[in-house]
Specification:
two-stranded antiparallel sheet, globular, two-stranded parallel ribbon
C-alpha cells in the first residue's frame, strides 16, 4: 500500500508488510516517525520489519522464530528483554548498528 494511500484512509488497523525494506535507514526512520508514529498514530499499526533500530520506538515488539512468538515486550525495554530471553545474540550485529542509528529522543 503506498504511503499516501495510508494517509488518506481512515481505518482502525493498518497492516504494513516491510515497507521500509526499499529505503535507507534515515529515510526509513523518517517514514516511521511521520507515518507510523505521526499520521497513523490514531490507529493500531502492525509493522513487519527487519529494521531493528526502530524497535525501541515501537509500543510493543513481537519477535518471531519459525512462526512462534519467542519474545513480546514493550518497545523501550526490548534490548534488556532480548538479553534476558537469550535472543539478543541472534541480532547482535543488527543491534550494534541500531545503537548507532537510534535517535536521541528514544
Amino acid at each position: 500500500m503506498p504511503y499516501t494511500h495510508c494517509r488518506t484512509q481512515d481505518a482502525d488497523v493498518y497492516l504494513l508488510d516491510d515497507p521500509l525494506s526499499a529505503v535507507d535507514v534515515h529515510v526509513g526512520g523518517h517514514i516511521f516517525s511521520a507515518l507510523v508514529r505521526g499520521a497513523l498514530s490514531h490507529a493500531a499499526v502492525l509493522l513487519v520489519t527487519n529494521a531493528v533500530h526502530l524497535l525501541p520506538r515501537a509500543d510493543r515488539v513481537l519477535v518471531l522464530d519459525a512462526g512462534n512468538v519467542v519474545l513480546q515486550v514493550r518497545g523501550r525495554g526490548v534490548w534488556t528483554s532480548m538479553r534476558r530471553k537469550g535472543t539478543y545474540h541472534q541480532f547482535s550485529s543488527e543491534l550494534q548498528f541500531a545503537a548507532q542509528c537510534t535517535p536521541p529522543d528514544v
